[in-house]
Amino acid sequence: MFRILGKGNKKYISNMKVVGITGGLGSGKSTIARVFKTLGVPVFDSDAAAKMLYTSYPELVSNIEKQLNITIRTAEGLQFKELGELIFRDASAKLFVESLVHPMVGEAFDAWILKQRTPYVLFESALLFQSGSALKCNWTIAVTAPVEERIARVKKRNAWSVDEIQQRMQSQMDENEMRQRADFCIDNGKSSRVVVEVWRLHHYFLGE
């Protein structure tokens, strides 16, 4: 069952309600977001939006390449492996890239939400609280799952060792802190009835 942890921030200036959803590596937040989508809720994927920025704004790529002395543009197209590895091990590089990308993602969301015509929308972001995007949300959801299940999910889709996965998890916001900061918490473990939980939350957000 989902937990109601608060009454919602209600800080977004639009009449459209915004529900932020976040979760650590392997938690399955994107899976939960897709369930909301089947109910007709528009989903803004901030990670996908960030990647689109690199295609749409060549000057962003140039700035990052110059400042961090890396290569993103290759003969095969945009490659993010080197950038991802640098951000993972270098906190200053991470902060620099985020200082450029997060405001642009925010602007993209502001433009996107004006085109929506539903009672509420979902804002999906792995860095919902760290980026300040939670301030635009009326409510926030933290998606969690047992560590063993998270590791198994990531191993299934990535060629990373268990040590690499654990290191990346440790670099993210602690799940306990995420639970405390979110208004709702969904347990996305194997035995969880996530569809029922999403259905209940959906009607809660609709005010029903």
Describe the structure.
- Strands 1-8-7-2-6-3 form a six-stranded mixed β-sheet, with helices on both faces.
- The chain folds into two domains: 1-42 and 116-208, P-loop containing nucleotide triphosphate hydrolases (Rossmann fold, 3-Layer(aba) Sandwich); 47-106.
- With 208 residues, it is of the alpha/beta class.
- The protein has nine helices and eight strands.
- It has helices at residues 29-38, 46-56, 58-68, 81-89, 91-113, 147-157, 162-170, 175-181, 194-205, and strands at residues 3-4, 17-23, 43-45, 73-74, 77-78, 120-124, 139-144, 184-187.
List keywords for this structure.
single chain, 208 residues, alpha/beta, Rossmann fold, six-stranded mixed β-sheet, two-stranded antiparallel sheet, 9 helices, globular, disordered N terminus
Widest β-sheet, arrangement of strands:
1-8-7-2-6-3
- Going by CATH, the architecture of the largest domain would be 3-Layer(aba) Sandwich
Cα gyration radius (Å) = 18 Å
Helix content class = 40-55%
Q: Sheet with the most strands?
A: 6 strands, mixed
- The separation of the N and C termini measures 18 Å
Low-confidence stretches: 1-13
Which class of the largest domain in CATH terms?
Alpha Beta
Mean pLDDT rating: 89
- Using the alpha-carbon principal axes, give the shape: globular
Q: Per DSSP, what share of the residues sits in E-state strands of 2 or more residues?
A: 5-15%
Q: Could you give the order of the helices and strands? A: EEHEHHEEHHEEHHHEH
* Class based on secondary structure composition and strand pairing: alpha/beta
- What is the tally of helical segments? 9
CATH superfamily of the largest domain: P-loop containing nucleotide triphosphate hydrolases
How many independent structural domains? 2
The CATH topology annotation of the largest domain reads as Rossmann fold
Count of extended strands: 8
